[in-house]
Design a protein that fits this description.
mainly beta, SH3 type barrels, 7-stranded antiparallel beta sheet, 5-stranded antiparallel beta sheet, 14 strands, 51% strand, disordered N terminus
Length: 148
């Protein structure tokens, strides 16, 4: 028997001004650090200060607030205005950035776990074209980063 609870909950959420993020949507913190809260209000408990550029997965939108998940899987709320247009990814472990989108391509540089890389071009066949803060650029396997 099919459950009718999920469509009912979705309709209720949409009626309350909330929207579920059905496809994976990633955004990044803007040019200033942002406070993440336990509720969609400035009166909520502050749970974390996200550094500029930190990638986040959008789970739910509610007015001027977004429910987001970080690379560790933790959930919190952030104001939409705290997010920027520039997109980033974070390395999950030591990641190799290469001259072209192929595992056999020459390595340009490596980054350690937790390093932010700016996305130059979106994912294409499992690869992301990225730029390091020092200006070096290349391709990294999507499996080695989070936030694309």
């Amino acid at each position: 028997m099919k459950s009718r609870a999920a469509p009912l909950l979705l309709a209720l959420a949409c009626g309350l001004g909330m929207t579920a993020a059905f496809g994976l949507e990633y955004r990044s913190i803007g040019s200033e650090p942002a406070i993440l809260y336990d509720a969609p209000t400035l009166r909520g408990q502050k749970v974390f200060v996200a550094p500029r550029g930190m990638p986040l997965e959008v789970v739910l939108a509610q007015g001027d607030w977004l429910r987001v998940r970080d690379a560790a899987g933790d959930l919190a709320w952030v104001e939409k205005k705290a997010l920027g247009e520039r997109r980033t990814v974070v390395s999950l472990a030591t990641a190799t950035v290469r001259t072209s989108p192929a595992a056999a391509a020459t390595a340009v540089f490596q980054v350690q776990k937790g390093v932010l890389l700016e996305i130059i071009e979106p994912v294409s066949a499992g690869w992301v074209r990225v730029r390091h803060a020092d200006g070096s650029a290349g391709y990294v396997s999507a499996a080695e980063v989070w936030g694309e």
